């Protein structure tokens, strides 16, 4: 039986200066600019993604994430999930088709962590950028910067992780891949997937609701991650940490900031997941090794720099 929620679909990121952000996400990160709209929003995608866009940039007074969207199997599934969300006690806003350019109707709701999420089933498909779907070449020859392949996941900080866990598990059908537990049995971090990936969304317990830690983008190889580090230095981009390896998910990673202070991650590798896998559990006092396997300790910036 196919899952109703298939994969991450998009993230809308608030930026302070749209032109600076465009240079960062297109020229450095290597996303492809696909469109813009009358609201001034810019639409981007990774080159391997088949949908028209996966990242929306919007100029605002404060940085952060407006919402993250997940793509569902079809419109009938979207209707079923609408009823399931209401039955679970979640207030749902219906956003009409076309409010995001070339995207169908969306269902928007707020998770107990304070973050807004969307479900949708229809979006224009433009195919893999530069190679298409028929006898495709290995990669487009006009890619820029880090050559990000896809928008992969978000890590979000907020309270009420247990209630959010129930929502994503019981209504949306996500599986728990990894978790961080305190000695008294409290889950303080949860990594959830709706696919075979190590995670499609992750949450860390935090007293402030609705905080955005990072949006993550997939690269092909460890050499690509090292090259991303070179590009970060060449462009005097603010770096957080890396290149290094995660303990959780085992991905190889580097973190840096866009000009507005939103954190980005690019990574390669990582674990896979099947529904019969038991969740991997980390003790809270091993969180440093869990996040940064080589250093085995968290820097203060990683814990506190949120938008």
Automatic annotation (TrEMBL):
Phosphoprotein is among the record's keywords: no
Domain of life the protein comes from: Bacteria
Family: Belongs to the extradiol ring-cleavage dioxygenase family.
UniProt source species: Marinobacterium alkalitolerans
Protein name per its UniProtKB record: Metapyrocatechase
Keywords: Aromatic hydrocarbons catabolism, Dioxygenase, Iron, Metal-binding, Oxidoreductase, Repeat
Record-linked PANTHER family: FOSFOMYCIN RESISTANCE PROTEIN FOSX (PTHR36113:SF6), LYASE, PUTATIVE-RELATED-RELATED (PTHR36113)
Enzyme class (EC, first level): oxidoreductase
Record keyword Iron present: yes
MF-aspect GO terms: catechol 2,3-dioxygenase activity
């Amino acid at each position: 039986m196919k899952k109703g929620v298939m994969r991450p679909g998009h993230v809308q990121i608030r930026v302070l200066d749209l032109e600076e952000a465009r240079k960062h996400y297109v020229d450095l990160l290597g996303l492809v600019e696909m469109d813009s709209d009358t609201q001034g929003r810019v639409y981007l995608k990774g080159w391997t993604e088949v949908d028209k866009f996966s990242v929306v940039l919007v100029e605002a007074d404060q940085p952060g994430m407006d919402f993250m969207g997940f793509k569902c199997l079809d419109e009938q599934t979207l209707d079923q999930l609408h009823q399931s969300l209401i039955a679970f006690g979640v207030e749902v806003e219906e956003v009409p088709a076309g409010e995001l350019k070339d995207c169908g109707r969306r269902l928007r709701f707020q998770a107990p962590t304070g973050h807004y999420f969307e479900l949708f089933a229809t979006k224009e498909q433009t195919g893999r950028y530069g190679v298409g779907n028929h006898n495709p070449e290995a990669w487009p020859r006009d890619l820029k910067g880090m050559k990000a392949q896809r928008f992969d996941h978000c890590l979000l900080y907020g309270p009420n992780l247990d209630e959010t866990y129930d929502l994503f598990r019981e209504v949306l059908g996500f599986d728990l891949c990894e978790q961080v537990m305190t000695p008294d049995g409290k889950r303080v971090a949860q990594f959830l997937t709706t696919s075979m990936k190590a995670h499609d969304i992750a949450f860390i317990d935090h007293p402030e609701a609705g905080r955005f830690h990072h949006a993550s983008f997939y690269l092909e190889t460890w050499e690509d991650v090292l090259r991303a580090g070179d590009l970060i230095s060449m462009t005097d981009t603010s770096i957080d940490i890396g290149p290094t390896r995660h303990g959780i998910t085992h991905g190889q990673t580097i973190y840096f900031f866009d000009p507005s202070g939103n954190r980005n991650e690019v990574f390669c590798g990582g674990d896979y997941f099947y529904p019969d896998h038991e969740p991997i559990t980390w003790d809270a006092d091993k969180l440093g090794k869990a996040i940064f396997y080589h250093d085995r300790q968290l820097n203060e910036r990683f814990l506190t720099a949120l938008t």
